[in-house]
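Readers outside the structure-tokenisation community will struggle with the description of the input data as it stands. Showing the layout once, in full, would remove most of the difficulty. For illustration, here is how one protein appears when written out as sequence plus structure tokens:
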Amino acid sequence: RQEARMVALLFHPDLRTMRLRADVARVGADNAGRWNDPTLSLDFSKILETVDHPWLVGGAIGLTLPITGRPGLEKELAESIHTQALVEARVAEARILRELDLQ
């Protein structure tokens, strides 16, 4: 009977799916609140009229600076979503084990 419980916990597809969702939520929580990656852009233009230097080149770097405190809120939200996913996985485990015990 104990072996059946362990097999159910390890291999039940619904439980595996719930655990994977919790893992995705954990990764989201780990990466929440980070700054966006900087962006780099280049622009090449050619002037069609006759001039000494017909090519124009321009570049830009874009950075995001969090000044509103929003990254902390994003982190808290992602951590609460992760906690919720863990609770849902544990509830699903208890449901499966209860169904197994009733058989």
